[in-house]
Amino acid sequence: MKKLTKVLNTLMVEIFNDILTIEQTALKKGHFSDLSVTEMHTIEAIGMYHPRTMSEVALDLKITVGTLTTAINRLVKKGYVERKRVEDDRRVVKIQLTKKGKLAYRIHEKFHTDMIHAMIEGLNVEDEEILVKSLSQLSNYLKKHYHLNE
Amino acid sequence: MKKLTKVLNTLMVEIFNDILTIEQTALKKGHFSDLSVTEMHTIEAIGMYHPRTMSEVALDLKITVGTLTTAINRLVKKGYVERKRVEDDRRVVKIQLTKKGKLAYRIHEKFHTDMIHAMIEGLNVEDEEILVKSLSQLSNYLKKHYHLNE
DNA sequence: TAGATATACTTTGATTATCAAAATATTTGA
DNA sequence: TCAAATATTTTGATAATCAAAGTATATCTA
After folding, report:
1. Can you count the helices (H) and strands (E) in chain B?
2. Quick one: what percent of chain B has pLDDT higher than 70?
3. Which of A82, A105, B104, B135 could form a disulfide with A11 if both were Cys (CB 3.0 to 4.6 A apart)?
4. What fold is seen in the domain A3-120?
């Protein structure tokens, strides 16, 4: 393997694993020690502003609605999420974050922005463009080669 | 949130999720449809060349040895891994990849190098350096701020 | 407009991944 | 020699996941 490829691969794998580990331990130690990474991502997918249906959120998370049902059961019990039936169409359930859920969302958001700030610290504008370009190329490659467009 | 931060954050999250999804579906569709992502990572951690102990591999994967035992049971049953007792110290079990395991390892390795090649396609040497620099900064930040050094 | 079909969600039953703690086998040290 | 330490496996529990079956409601068609 070419040296640069090896360096970049190692970096990407490390970053990947570190982020997973950090999300776990940061949650365990922090204010929301009763949330798993999966639960945090569910909260992220529900989002801050509009109530969303079970189907929408399950699609975003790429899990079945059945799986989401059990996840939401737990998040409701823990006080992060609220469920309500839609009166216009009583088959539909909308879920939204409680105050506590929104707080968790914001803290997780900050975790993300802190990371990005660290990544771009000391880069000038041209450097930033190159970073965006290379990551875009990777993202496009992944979507093209693996037909990930929804 | 600053625009650049938002763009980079979105890119990173997308790449993160896409890679997870791709690993899953690529495995399912490919030659090794009986391997989960977790199992593939276990194969990766065992490595191509030297037999390794249960404790070593569990440490690398950041899982308990008990969890690894059940994972290895399945991989042995499926023919990817071999176990052997060490004669000098009969408490120790060394695990190594079978021929089939090594083939899986190489295919997964190629998946990684293909991705990296896509990421750096069209970049010149200075661009590459900036990419390495920014990813290194991110990696260092993660390790420093979260005490991840083993 | 009644009955069939479709839709949105929940429940059920099964599997995988995980941990902590107990159990087993072996080695080392006093 | 036997107590303590080490390496692994087993056990019992929980979370995350899916497919398929079940429930409630809405829509379409004859």
Report:
1. 6, 3
2. 97
3. B135
4. Arc Repressor Mutant, subunit A (1.10.10)
The three-point CA angle B26-B27-B30 to 5° equals 80
Q: Which fold has domain B3-146?
A: Arc Repressor Mutant, subunit A (1.10.10)
> Are A79 and A100 spatial neighbours (Cβ–Cβ below 8 Å)?
yes
Task: Give me A88's structure tokens.
Answer: 């216009």
Name the token pair of A140.
């496009």
Q: From start to end of B1-150, where are the E strands?
A: 52-53, 81-85, 93-97
Q: Which nucleotides of D are covered by protein (CB under 7 A)?
A: 6-12, 15-21, 24-27
Asked if A71 and A60 count as a contact pair (C-beta separation under 8 A), the reply is no
Ordered by start, the domain boundaries in chain B are 3-146
pLDDT in tens, chain A (150 residues): 789 999 999 998 888 888 888 888 777 777 888 999 999 999 999 999 999 999 999 999 999 999 999 999 999 999 999 999 999 999 999 999 999 999 999 999 988 898 889 888 888 898 898 889 888 988 888 888 776 544
The residues of the protein lying within 7 Å (CB) of strand D read A 36-39, 62-64, 66-67, 70-71, 74, 88-91; B 53-55, 65-66, 68-70, 72-73, 83, 89, 91-94
Gap between the Cα atoms of B94 and B80, Å rounded: 14
Confirm or reject contact between B150 and chain A (CB < 8 A).
no
Half-sphere exposure of A127 (CA within 13 A, CB side): 13
CB B119 within 8 A of CB A134: yes
Instruction: Establish if A115 touches chain B: CB-CB under 8 angstroms.
Output: yes
A5: nearest Cα among A129, A126, A138: A138
